[in-house]
Design goal:
The chain is an alpha/beta fold. It has 19 helices and 15 strands. The chain is about 40% helix and about 15% strand.
C-alpha cells in the first residue's frame, strides 16, 4: 500500500437509559474500534489516517454525520453495531454509502450473528468475529476472495470466505488507540459506573468456554487470556495519561483466578492509585475471600455478579451451571468490604415457570441489596442457542434489556414478578443504603443525581435530595 488511506470508524449506538431531554446517558468507549485503529497504525504507520466516531458522543444529527463524511472524503468507512442498535446501523450505513465513494465495512456482534440483516446495497463487506487482521487486509487492498473471516454479496447471494483463526497470543495486539479519543466528551456523559470521570476500558481476555445459551460465540468458545504483565502495562499507560478509573469488560475476567490475583498484586506493587470497576464478567462461584481481599486492596470499588436464575433446573437448562451457594458467599463477603456490589437476574429463559421466576426474586431479596437495581429480560438473539430454542420470535430485538413488554405478552405472570422487584428496589431503606455506599466510594452528589435520573426516572428531585441529606433548592 503506497497511497495514504483515510479510514473512518463509527460505533453506531443510540440512547440507552436516557428518557428525557436534559438527562445525560450512559456511554462506553468504543473499545473494539480503538483496537482496530491501533492495529492499523501499527501495520501501516503514517500511510493510514484513522478517525473514530461514537454516534452518541460525536454526532448530534444525521446532517452532522453527512457533513463529516463529505468533508473527510474517507476511502473506507467501518461501522460497528449491536443488535439493539440495528436500526441506527442501517441508517448510518445508508448515509455512508450515499455521501461518499468509500468502501463500507460492517462489524460487531450483530454483524457476526445476522448476516442476512446486515448485507445489503449499503454494505460492501461484513467482518465476522475478530476484526483486526481481516480489516487490515481489506485496507491493504488484498483480493476480497482471499481474505479470511469476511462475507459479501455476490450475484445476490451471501458469500462467506474461510473462517479466520482466532488470535491465539493476545499480547501481540497493540493497546487500544486513545490518542485520537476526546476523553472530555466521554467524561461529560455517565460512564459505565454511573459517574463523570475519565474512563479507561480494558478487556483482558477474549472468548469464553462456558456454555450459556443466551451468549454469542463471536469471539469463540475458547478463553484466550492476555498475560498479567501485558494487562498491567496497559493499566500503567492509562494511569500515566491521568486516567484513574478503569473498567474491566471481559466475558469472565476471573476465568483463571491465579492470573487475576497477579494483576491485582501488580497494581499494588506498582503503587498505582486507581478505582477499578468490574461492571461485567466476574463469575461469582470462582470468587473467594482471597480474591475479594486482593481486588479491594488493588482499588476495586465496583463489582457485578451475574446470577441469571436461582432455579437449579434452569441453571442447567441455560448452560450456566452456577454454584448459587458460592455466589451467595461471594456477594455477602464483597458487601462486607463496603464497596459497590451489584448483581442481576434474568427473566424469560426457555421453559421458565412462574415459580422459578419468583424464586430468582426471592434469592436476590435475600442478599445484601444490589446498589444498582439490575434485572434483565432475555432477548434471544440470532446466533445463540436461546434463539434456536425459541425457534422463532416476533419480539422487537431492537428494544433494550430492561424492557419487559415482550415478557408480559408471553406470560402474564411476569407482571407480578416485575412488580415485586420494583417494590423491592423502591424500598426506602434500600435506597438510603445504596446512596450511602455510593457516597462512601467517592460519588459526588451531582453524579448520584445524574445516575438516579436515569435509573429512577419518576423520582422527584426532592426525594433525591432527601437521600443525599441536602436541603431542597
Amino acid at each position: 500500500m503506497t497511497n495514504k488511506k483515510k479510514v473512518i470508524l463509527i460505533d453506531t449506538c443510540s440512547t440507552w437509559l436516557k428518557k428525557n431531554e436534559g438527562q445525560t446517558d450512559q456511554v462506553v468507549l468504543p473499545l473494539g474500534l480503538m483496537y482496530l485503529s491501533s492495529h492499523l497504525k501499527s501495520i501501516f504507520g503514517d500511510s493510514v489516517e484513522t478517525r473514530i466516531i461514537h454516534s452518541v458522543v460525536d454526532i448530534e444529527s444525521d446532517e452532522k454525520l453527512k457533513d463529516t463524511i463529505r468533508t473527510e472524503e474517507p476511502d473506507i468507512i467501518g461501522i460497528r453495531t449491536q443488535t439493539v442498535y440495528r436500526n441506527e446501523f442501517h441508517n448510518v450505513a445508508s448515509i455512508a454509502k450515499e455521501n461518499s465513494g468509500a468502501l463500507v465495512i460492517a462489524g460487531g456482534p450483530h454483524v457476526s450473528s445476522d448476516l442476512d440483516d446486515v448485507l445489503d446495497s449499503a454494505v460492501d463487506i461484513a467482518v465476522i468475529g475478530e476484526g483486526e487482521y481481516s480489516f487490515a487486509e481489506i485496507v491493504a487492498g488484498k483480493r476480497i476472495q482471499d481474505i479470511s473471516g469476511i462475507a459479501y454479496l455476490g450475484d445476490g447471494k451471501i458469500i462467506r470466505t474461510m473462517p479466520r483463526i482466532p488470535i491465539d497470543n493476545l499480547d501481540t495486539i497493540p493497546f487500544p488507540d486513545y490518542d485520537d479519543t476526546d476523553m472530555d466528551k466521554y467524561e461529560s456523559n455517565l460512564s459505565y459506573g454511573f459517574n463523570f470521570r475519565k474512563q479507561g476500558v480494558i478487556t483482558t481476555s477474549r472468548g469464553c468456554h462456558f456454555t450459556c445459551d443466551f451468549c454469542h460465540t463471536t469471539l469463540g468458545k475458547k478463553s484466550r487470556l492476555r498475560s498479567a504483565e501485558n494487562v498491567l502495562d496497559e493499566i500503567q499507560g492509562l494511569s500515566d495519561r491521568g486516567i484513574k478509573d478503569i473498567y474491566f469488560i471481559d466475558d469472565i475476567f476471573n476465568i483463571n483466578p491465579r492470573r487475576s490475583l497477579e494483576i491485582f498484586e501488580g497494581i499494588s506493587e506498582r503503587n498505582l492509585s486507581l478505582r477499578l470497576y468490574f461492571v461485567n464478567g466476574l463469575r461469582g462461584d470462582l470468587v473467594n475471600e482471597e480474591f475479594v481481599d486482593a481486588m479491594v486492596e488493588a482499588g476495586t470499588i465496583w463489582v457485578s455478579y451475574a446470577i441469571e436464575t436461582a432455579s437449579p433446573r434452569l441453571q442447567k437448562e441455560i448452560g450456566k451451571h452456577l454454584n448459587l451457594s458460592k455466589v451467595r458467599k461471594a456477594i455477602e463477603y464483597s458487601a462486607q468490604k463496603g464497596i459497590i456490589v451489584n448483581y442481576w437476574g434474568l427473566l424469560g429463559s426457555h421453559t421458565e415457570t412462574e415459580k422459578e421466576a419468583h424464586q430468582t426474586i426471592d434469592f436476590m431479596e435475600s442478599l445484601p441489596p444490589s446498589v444498582i437495581p439490575y434485572l434483565f429480560a432475555l432477548k434471544p438473539f440470532k446466533g445463540t442457542e436461546a434463539h434456536t430454542k425459541a425457534q422463532s420470535t416476533d419480539e422487537d430485538l431492537g428494544t433494550v434489556y430492561h424492557n419487559f413488554a415482550h415478557l408480559f405478552r408471553k406470560d402474564r405472570f411476569y407482571i407480578d414478578v416485575v412488580h415485586r422487584w420494583r417494590d423491592s428496589i423502591w424500598n426506602e431503606n434500600r435506597l438510603q443504603r445504596s446512596t450511602s455506599i455510593l457516597q462512601n466510594n467517592g460519588y459526588s452528589n451531582e453524579e448520584i443525581k445524574a445516575a438516579y435520573s436515569v435509573l429512577y426516572d419518576s423520582m422527584k428531585p426532592s426525594q433525591v435530595n432527601k437521600l443525599l441529606g441536602v436541603k431542597n433548592e
